[in-house]
Amino acid sequence: MAKPGGALPSKQQILDYIQSSQTPVGKREIARAFQVKGALRADLRAMLKELEEEGAIDRGRKRKMAPKGALPEVSVLQVEGYDEDGDLLARPTGPHSDSESRVVVVAGGRRQERVKPGDRVLARMKRVGAETYEAQVIRILNSGAEAVLGVLSRSGRKWYVNSTDRRADKTYTLVKRPEEVDEGDLVLVRPLAGRGAEREAELIERVGNLEDPKAFSLIAIHQNGIPVEFPDAALAEADKFKKPTLGKRVDLRAMQLVTIDGADARDFDDAVHAEPDTDPDNPGGFRLTVAIADVAAYVTPGSALDRAARPRGNSVYFPDRVVPMLPERLSNDLCSLRPNEDRFCLACHMVISSKGKLLSHRFVRGLMRSAARLTYDQVQAARDGIVNDQTAPLVDDVITPLYQAFFALNAGREARGTLELDLPERQVRIGENGKVAEITRRDRLDSHRLIEEFMITANVAAAEALEAKQPQSKLPIMYRVHESPPLDKLEGLRESLAVLGYNLAKGAVIKPIMLTGILEQAAKDGKADLVSDIMLRSQAQAIYTGNNAGHFGLALRRYCHFTSPIRRYSDVLVHRALISNYGLGEGGMSDTDIEEFDDTAELISGTERRAAAAERDALERYVSAYMAEQVGTIFPARISGVARFGLFVALEETGAEGLIPVSTLPNDYYDHDEVHRCLVGRDTNTAFTLSDKIRVRLVEANPVTGGLVFEVVEGGKTASKGAGQSTGRGGKRRVGTDRKGPRGGPSKPRKLKRGRR
Question: Hey, which of 8, 108, 431, 637 has its CA 20 to 30 A from 562?
Answer without folding.
Answer: 108
